[in-house]
Amino acid sequence: MDERSTDETSGGGPATHRYTHGYGASVLQGHRRRTAANSAAHLLPHLLPGQRLLDVGSGAGTITADLARAVGPERTTALEVTEEAAQLTRAELARQGLAEVEVLVADAHRLPLPDDSIDVAHAHQVLQHVADPVGVLAELRRVVRPGGVIAVRDAEYPGFRWYPDVPGLDDWLSLYLATARANGGTPDAGRRLLAWARAAGLDDVEMTSSTWTYATPGDRAWWADSWAGRISAGPLAQQILASGRAAQEDLDRIARAWRGWAENPDASFIVPHGEIIARPR
Q1: Domain boundaries, the chain
Q2: What are the start and end residues of every segment in region (Disordered) (predicted)?
Q3: What is the pTM of this model?
């Protein structure tokens, strides 16, 4: 996803949106832990060698690499909206020996692909950040052949749950939600996927849900360190400071709250996701 891009909404008006997270070290640290097994399990049973696959919003490239191995790297196309993000994907694919994967730079609202040219389209944590989620799904419907597969998964930020209650984490979630919405995003995208798919003209849609859970000492420390870094420095922190929603001392306090939460042996964190499998007719 890009730092800032402009597109047309489905209602015809202009919409400006920014990728809230950016590409700092604390963000990439998290994104590089994503695999097809932990982030696209709903898609895996539908993959076959030789399918033509499009991965939209490929980012750090780790999920892309797993999908490419399932269908064949020469049959896989990854797409990002800026050259900076595309280079992240290319670097990871090269590291894993999958340089045959094609990596394109384009806007998901206007895919540079012919109609009915793809067997499988995948988007993970993408629709929550785009200006027009229904428009992106309509584009996926256009390029995926009848009977093919569109697989989407997005987090449901307002449904995040943790134990024990920590006021600093309440402040973190409020600031994130406000910032994402100000950037034109939809942080409750997970619950909307079925409605968006139907609005895009997809009527053969199965919606499911799944979670990430952080409850071991190592997982808690990693998750807390990632969010403490994002909230106290980097693009997310800069956006919050520029908006006046919080001061640096507030963000530093929230970062300390994250790390304190992780040190509690009873602590747990649950991240719910909505996910769909849709088949164009």
Answers
A1: 5-165+185-215+270-278
A2: 1-21
A3: 0.91
